[in-house]
Amino acid sequence: MAHSNEMGAPLDFKGLWQYDAAPEDKSQVKIAPRYNHFINGKFVEPDSGEYFDTISPSTEEKLSEIALANENDVDKAVKAARKAQKDWAKLPGKERGKYLFRIARLMQERARAFSVIESMDGGKPIRESRDVDVPLAAAHFFYYAGWADKLEYAYPGKKASPKGVAGQIIPWNFPLLMAAWKLAPALATGNTVVLKPAETTPLTSMFLAELIRDAGIPDGVVNIVNGMGATGAALVNHPDINKIAFTGSTPVGKFIQKALAGRDVSYTLELGGKAANIIFEDAPIDQAVEGIINGIFFNQGHVCCAGSRLFVQESVANEVMRKLKYRIDTLVVGDPLDKNTDIGAINSKKQLDKINELIQAGIDEGGQVYKANVSTPDKGFWCAPTLFTEVSQAHRIVNEEIFGPVLTIQTFRTPDEAIKKANNTAFGLSGGVWTDKGAKIFNVTSQLRAGVIWANTYNKFDPTSPFGGYKESGMGREGGLHGLTPYVNLD
Ligand code: ADP
User: Fold this and answer.
1) What range defines the domain where residue 443 resides?
2) Of 241, 263, 296, 454, which is the most exposed, with the fewest CB atoms less than 10 Å away?
3) Which residues are known to be catalytic?
4) pTM for the model
5) Residues 398-411 pLDDT 10s
6) Digit-coded pLDDT (tens) for 164-212
7) CATH number at residue 375
8) Helix, strand, coil proportions of the chain in percent (round to 5)?
9) Residue 250 lies in a domain
10) How many domains does the chain have?
11) Which residue's CA is the nearest one to ligand 1's atom 27?
12) How far, in Å, CA of 482 to CA of 215, rounded?
């Protein structure tokens, strides 16, 4: 019997039953040997002809080479963004929103590739890139797509217009997610962008560039140039930039602030942190121990809001320490692509050296160290989970951001003492409180000087929720309605 489709043409079933060709091997994620700049919708070679290697921190093997942007490349990218900006801003918000929805959906379709690449290039466990980084990045585009045609509701009685061209410089700890945090609100509000990813993790940004091209985003709306600090500095110093958004270390943030002083460029800085995670005696201790683990060892501790200073009420300190030591010995440190891995590779040799230097400083200053009894691979950059007791405010490891799997532990007797100790820091990004009492949560959290505070949980992120810090943790907020504001002028 002949079959036909709706158009009347005979159907060909052959392809359905015949498997003479090998099925496409979907387990392979293809990384090109070389990536160029993404400028004006095209992949273009660098002005200098120079490329730099990006390696896997878990194997130390080269993954690809990436075009290095100098001032001329940055200038080309800014010019492309400037040229595209008027038309992009003129599009009805609904149309811009459609493009953002398309980016979000394509990201979901390509989630597996993004996760694998993120873990290979950056070292983080695949469980985290698969369950946190990539879905959250897509969620940011979905969320800000929704705002694109509702700016009059975001700012009732005011007219919101885009800042213009935004230079965005991002770090290596959440490469794709930080790109999403930066791009989504900027694009939703009619800005165009030049993005500078971090030099150790350029790959997911290049995959994102391909996605943006495939999504049909108009040429020049998103431009991506890679390079070291000098490339970031060239972007900051470019005379035709209207806005700089930076996430990274406090020293570089200060440098950028100085470079922008006296110029008509608005900026947001999301910098370092040294968060207090406070455990009261009435907390559910087993859950709190899991929260401590997640707070400091998530993403190898490469987290600006990591709960890196633990404060435990004296009466439960022994119990918490015993459970914590037991628990960190069970953590699996190793291959980021193994689904059972809890802690992946340290992002770079430079970062591992910095962590080890601070661990040594902690020991030299009299801290009591406990390193988890776990095995680590021979090749690659690794750091076993590390706890420090017998430390005080005077210790470097209590003051400085380590950005690694290293936790300092101090005790307290009263809520007031916990609050004082928690606030005794140059930073003010985040914090955590664990207690059974709602009133205590309100009392303590309202006195902590930090932008984001979690109660009975830690490291929970959502695109609807603003994120940012006080003091040396930076200025401005990303996420939520607050995250739109740095990208608009309000009349
Ligand atoms: P880390 O020291 O942990 O590598 P950074 O703050 O240096 O963190 O890096 C965050 C981002 O800032 C990266 O993309 C990096 O290339 C960029 N960067 C570094 N130095 C400068 C600078 N002087 N001006 C602008 N961007 C910079």
Assistant:
1) 276-463
2) 263
3) 270, 304
4) 0.93
5) 999 999 999 999 99
6) 999 999 999 999 999 999 999 999 999 999 999 999 999 999 999 999 9
7) 3.40.309.10
8) 40, 20, 40
9) yes
10) 2
11) 229
12) 27
